[in-house]
Design goal:
Layout: H1 2-5, H2 20-29, H3 57-66, H4 69-76, H5 108-115
Main location: other
Pfam families: SBP_bac_5 (PF00496)
Organism: Calderihabitans maritimus
Length: 125
């Protein structure tokens, strides 16, 4: 990396450039100051709207309850992010956002209940 080799003194870190894991490594080294700046960026899952299974709102709710957004931000983004509650409401600096959206809290039991009947039960370890 150009910063570590001394080739440059400052770099911009964003989701298009330096990965969050590299930003965390630089911050943890004690040699660099990493400043997290607010940036509107959304990482999303997209599903096939023609899927018979996904036409059922209960299945879509089950998927939402099954996603542990806090853990995703902590582990995949190294803590550099805020869990979105939906496509609208993730960035309060955007005029059309709705910060009052409650979203879905991680709840595996509600996920199982909502998906009941769609998938055969199976043991997990």
């Amino acid at each position: 990396m150009a910063l570590e080799s001394g080739e440059v003194d400052v770099i911009g870190v964003d989701m298009q450039g330096v990965e969050p894991v590299a930003a965390r490594r630089l911050a943890d080294s004690g040699k660099y100051q990493v400043m997290a700046l607010h940036q509107a960026y959304l990482v999303a899952f997209y599903f096939n709207p023609k899927s018979e299974v996904l036409k059922d709102i209960k299945v879509r709710q089950a998927i939402n309850y099954a996603l542990n957004r806090e853990e995703m931000v902590a582990n995949l983004l190294e803590g550099y992010g805020v869990p979105a509650k939906g496509l609208v409401g993730f960035d309060t600096s955007i005029p059309w956002t709705n910060p009052n959206i409650k979203g879905y809290a991680y709840n595996p039991e509600k996920a199982k209940s909502a998906a009941r009947g769609w998938f055969p039960p199976r043991e997990t370890t």
